C-alpha cells in the first residue's frame, strides 16, 4: 500500500481557490449515493433554494452546473447564442476576453466594448453599443474582473436591457457570496458563478440562474445548443423540482454536499454580515498596502474588496517574492495576467479567507520579505 500523497496546507490568498472550512471538507466525506436517490434529490432541491437567496432571485431555474466557473461561462453563452447571432461583450480584463473568445467559437458576431485594464466599462458605452446593434442576442459583462480587481456597476445596463429583447448576462464568479449580486433587482437574465471563490467551497460546481425569458429563448432555438452537456433545456428536466427527474449526466454528488454545507454556513453568518466582513478586511488590506508603498491597480471607487490588485513598491520584482511567500510562509497570492503580467499581485480575501488574521499573516510575511 502506498502512503497518501502529502499536501502541505497553504493560506490561499490568491484569485481562487479560496480556503475551505473543515466543515465543508467533512461534508464531502458523507456517503456517495445515486444521483436519483431521493436523499440526494432533497439535497439538490435545498441547494437550489439556497442559491436563489444568494443570487437574490426568484428564477425557478437556478442550479449548479457541473464544472468550475468556466463551465458556467460556456453554459451561459452556448445556451443563448446561435451561429450568426450578435453578442455585445464588455472586455476590461481576462474574463471578458474569454467570453468574447467563447462567443466567437459558437459562431456569434462579437461586438467588443473594450476598456483599459483597471477601469470599469462606462455603462453608457454598453448602452450605445446596443443602440448600434439593437438586434444583439445578449450583452455580457463581468461583475468582478478577477484579473484587475475592478467591480463593474450592473444596474443601469440591466434597467435599459429589460426594455429590449436583448438578454443580460453577468459573470459573478468572483462576486457571489462576497459582494451583493442582485439578479432580480438588476434585471439579469443569466448569471453564473463558481464555488471556489467567495462561496468558500472547493472548485467543481458553477451555480447558475436563468430568467424565464432566457429559458424561453433556450427552448425556442432554431438549432440545438452546440453543447449537449451544458444544454439548459435538458438539464432543467433533471434539476427542476416540478418535472419528472430525467437522468442527464451523473451529478457530482459529493461536491453537492460541499456546496450545501457552504450555503448553510452563509445562512448562519447572514449575507449582509458576510458582505460587511469582505468589505472591511478588503478595505483594510488596501489601506495597509498603500501605506507600504504598493500602488493599487484598480481605479478608485470601483475596487473589489475580495480581490486586491497592486504593484509592488519601488520596482521590486514580483515573481521571486511571490515564490518566497509560498515556499517560506505557505501563503499563496496570484501574479498579474496579460498586460499586468510581472507587474502586480492579485490578493484574494474570499470566503473563509476574508479575515483580519489573513491580512495580519500576509502583512507580517510581506514586511519580513521587503525588509
Ligand atoms: C475564476 C473566474 C472564472 C473561471 O472560473 P474557473 O473556476 O477557474 O473555471 C470566470 N470568471 C471570473 C470572473 C473568474 O474570476
CATH superfamily of the largest domain: Type I PLP-dependent aspartate aminotransferase-like (Major domain)
Named CATH architecture of the largest domain: 3-Layer(aba) Sandwich
Question: Which percent bin holds the helix content?
Answer: 25-40%
Structural class: alpha/beta
Highest CATH level, the class of the largest domain: Alpha Beta
Shape summary: globular
| Count of beta strands | 15
How many domains make up the 3D coordinates? Answer: 2
Alpha carbon gyration radius: 21 Å
Listing every helix as H and every strand as E from the N terminus to the C terminus, the arrangement reads EHHEHEHEHEEEHEEEHHHHEEHEEEH
CATH topology of the largest domain: Aspartate Aminotransferase, domain 2
Question: Strand content of the residues, in percent?
Answer: 15-25%
The helix tally amounts to: 12
Give the quaternary arrangement of the chains: single chain
Amino acid at each position: 500500500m502506498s502512503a497518501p500523497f502529502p499536501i502541505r496546507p497553504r493560506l490561499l490568498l490568491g484569485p481562487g481557490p479560496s480556503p475551505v472550512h473543515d466543515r465543508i471538507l467533512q461534508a464531502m466525506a458523507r456517503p456517495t449515493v445515486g444521483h436519483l436517490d431521493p436523499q440526494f434529490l432533497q439535497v439538490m432541491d435545498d441547494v437550489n433554494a439556497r442559491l436563489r437567496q444568494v443570487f437574490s432571485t426568484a428564477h425557478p431555474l437556478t442550479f449548479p452546473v457541473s464544472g468550475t466557473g468556466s463551465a458556467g461561462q460556456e453554459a451561459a453563452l452556448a445556451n443563448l447564442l446561435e451561429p450568426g447571432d450578435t453578442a455585445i461583450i464588455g472586455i476590461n480584463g481576462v474574463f471578458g476576453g474569454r467570453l468574447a473568445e467563447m462567443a466567437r467559437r459558437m459562431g456569434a458576431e462579437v461586438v467588443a466594448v473594450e476598456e483599459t485594464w483597471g477601469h470599469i466599462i462606462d455603462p453608457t458605452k454598453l448602452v450605445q453599443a446596443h443602440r448600434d446593434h439593437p438586434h444583439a442576442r445578449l450583452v455580457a459583462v463581468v461583475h468582478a474582473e478577477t484579473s484587475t480587481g475592478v467591480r463593474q456597476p450592473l444596474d443601469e445596463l440591466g434597467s435599459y436591457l429589460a426594455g429590449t429583447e436583448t438578454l443580460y448576462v453577468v459573470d459573478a464568479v468572483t462576486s457571489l457570496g462576497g459582494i451583493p449580486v442582485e439578479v432580480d433587482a438588476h434585471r439579469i437574465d443569466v448569471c453564473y458563478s463558481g464555488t471556489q471563490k467567495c462561496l468558500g467551497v472547493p472548485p467543481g460546481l458553477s451555480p447558475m440562474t436563468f430568467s424565464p425569458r432566457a429559458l424561453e429563448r433556450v427552448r425556442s432555438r432554431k438549432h440545438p445548443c452546440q453543447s449537449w452537456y451544458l444544454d439548459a433545456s435538458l438539464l432543467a428536466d433533471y434539476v427542476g423540482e416540478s418535472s419528472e427527474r430525467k437522468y442527464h449526466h451523473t451529478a457530482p454528488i459529493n461536491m453537492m454536499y460541499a456546496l450545501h454545507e457552504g450555503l448553510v454556513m452563509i445562512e448562519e453568518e447572514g449575507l449582509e454580515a458576510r458582505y460587511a466582513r469582505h468589505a472591511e478586511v478588503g478595505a483594510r488590506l488596501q489601506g495597509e498596502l498603500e501605506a507600504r508603498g504598493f500602488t493599487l491597480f484598480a481605479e478608485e471607487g470601483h475596487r473589489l474588496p475580495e480581490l486586491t490588485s497592486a504593484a509592488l513598491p519601488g520596482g521590486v520584482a514580483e515573481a521571486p517574492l511571490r515564490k518566497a511567500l509560498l515556499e517560506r510562509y505557505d501563503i499563496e497570492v496570484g501574479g498579474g495576467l496579460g498586460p499586468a503580467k510581472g507587474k502586480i499581485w492579485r490578493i484574494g480575501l474570499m470566503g473563509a479567507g476574508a479575515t483580519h488574521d489573513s491580512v495580519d499573516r500576509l502583512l507580517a510575511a510581506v514586511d519580513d520579505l521587503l525588509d
